[in-house]
Amino acid sequence: MSTQIETELHQAVELRRNFAIISHPDAGKTTLTEKLLLYGGAIHEAGAVKARRAQRKATSDWMAMEQQRGISITSTVLQFEYQNCQINLLDTPGHQDFSEDTYRTLAAADNAVMLIDVAKGLEPQTRKLFEVCKLKGLPIFTFVNKLDRPGREALELLDEIEQELGLQTYGVNWPIGVGDRFKGVFDRQEQKIHLFERNAHGSRAAHDTTVDLGDAEIEKLLEEDLYYQLKNDLELLEGVGPDLDLDLVHQGKMTPVFFGSAMTNFGVELFLKYFLKYALKPGAHNSSVGKVPPTYPDFSGFVFKLQANMDPKHRDRVAFIRVCTGKFEKDMTVNHARTGKVVRLSRPQKLFAQERESIDTAYPGDVIGLNNPGVFAIGDTIYTGQKLEYEGIPYFSPELFASLRNPNPSKFKQFQKGISELREEGAVQIMYSSDEAKRDPIMAAVGQLQFEVVQFRLQNEYGVETILELLPYSVARWVEGGWEALEKVGRIFNTTTVKDNMGRPVLLFRNEWNCQQLQADHPELKLSAIAPVYSCEQPVKE
Ligand code: G4P
């Protein structure tokens, strides 16, 4: 017989879905997010997210840099309800604000939605983010957007996904025409055509007209050639295409594909409906005591992102925690696995864009923001009851490198402290030359913004002005087997060896080609684009 808390947790998990959108800039992520919130009733008129953003720019001064650049550095969590389900949309920072946080957010997600522009197909940022999803085995739902604009054939796009990403595809709905001739989509589950209304207004929930495929009017509603193309495509899909296999979807091996136009709201509701049906509910997580199911009665979670200075008046930091098990309650005390300390979780926050709203409870699959007076680091576990620790979050291959110098010897201590704290927070990766004479830290990042944030914060929080010098590398690889494995291969060329903050060897290359060359010359050397994760990481002394 299950206890009351287990029943409560079971119900909460059944009704929760959590996902992040992966896409390349301009594919329509902001637009789709807005439309999802519109259907979820979280906003009443689309444009609100953008307007909120503009308003924030005008009124908030929480981070001067954000104002200067006019961008959002934070990733936030948007929570909305749809058909009784509680949906958590983890917003991944994109564009110029692409950083390791974008990757880390995926560590807190149970599902990913891959948003593709129908005219462009797969693009570089989407591919990179896909690799992170693949590593985690996240289920991927594909939304092909902008069908109201000229674009590529549906079959060709599916083929691209299969060939390039190695994912099987299943078209849950199927487009009829594209661009000026876009007529709507065919829902293969219900065997109904949803007709697209070109003059539908995109700011409110769309009104949807459906007809059966066998309807006598259908040939008139769709132009004849489009009707026959639909029939042909469907015959092909039914004949040689795979059936929808939810096990494969949940293992991240098959992607259900949807077509629509976020701008005009078309296909968004249909997507939501099937997403809720097919998406993974909050599941079990690997930990030091094995896989822990979400209905485990004690509370636990892990930190996947830290953010500083949201409120300059308080100079506070917020730790974003993914709830994995049990029920979170305001003011509860928890254990901090890495330090062994007891921490009281006061001032918990739920975040909608930049607005903070206090919360009293949270369940598995939810994300909470906690005030972080320097207690938490990325990957930290908090728990009640029996001690457990979740697998850490790996470091992802940086692509930008710069050495950072403090020209003022009297600021030596502040500089060291700042670097060490910012690294611990996960603002940037820090590496050191293996040549002891070169003591300046090397910053390694996935986005330029990370460098700017570090320099800005060193100046504002630690009073140290720094000089940054970009280094000519673009690829980093960790050496499996460490220094011993590296020594065995002897001299290697066209690479620079540095050590990460754990003292592990990392090879830096100018380009992918040099990296491949080394691999070809030394196939015995195993290189990895992702740093191995150790639980309870203890950085070496800097
Ligand atoms: P992002 O967050 O992924 O970068 O993309 P965003 O939603 O900002 O969309 C990028 C551009 O694509 C926007 O146009 C947006 O209106 C447009 N867009 C998004 N979805 C659709 C769609 O389904 N159909 C069409 N035709 N366009 C779409 P913009 O001109 O850059 O901005 P705005 O003036 O519309 O704000």
TrEMBL record:
Record-listed GTP binding positions: 23-30, 91-95, 145-148
Gene Ontology BP annotations: regulation of translational termination
Swiss-Prot/TrEMBL keywords: Cytoplasm, GTP-binding, Nucleotide-binding, Protein biosynthesis
Subcellular location as annotated: Cytoplasm
A Gene Ontology molecular function term of the record: GTP binding
Record GO cellular component, one term: cytosol
Gene3D superfamilies in UniProt: P-loop containing nucleotide triphosphate hydrolases, Peptide chain release factor 3, domain III, Translation factors
Tr-type G domain segment(s): 14-283
HAMAP family: Rel_fac_3
UniProt function note: Increases the formation of ribosomal termination complexes and stimulates activities of RF-1 and RF-2. It binds guanine nucleotides and has strong preference for UGA stop codons. It may interact directly with the ribosome. The stimulation of RF-1 and RF-2 is significantly reduced by GTP and GDP, but not by GMP.
Membership in a protein family: Belongs to the TRAFAC class translation factor GTPase superfamily. Classic translation factor GTPase family. PrfC subfamily.
Protein name: Peptide chain release factor 3
Gene of this entry: prfC
